[in-house]
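Model it.
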Amino acid sequence: MTAFAQPVTIDPTERQRRKKAIDAARASVHLEGFVLDAEVEGIYAQFIDGQIDMPEVILKVKWHTGLSGRSSKR
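Modeled.
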């Protein structure tokens, strides 16, 4: 969602679909041995709540993890 976009109210079915997708992604990451930090969990919560869309989730997570082309914070 851009700075000019209005928050979207999502219905319970869409919220559940988003939660299920995030839960699957989280499980996959954990199987690989990674632990998601609070910032990534917050990004996921924004997606589930309808505050951002999936392309923005990907962008924010890449930025946070240093995969956006900038140097890593670590």
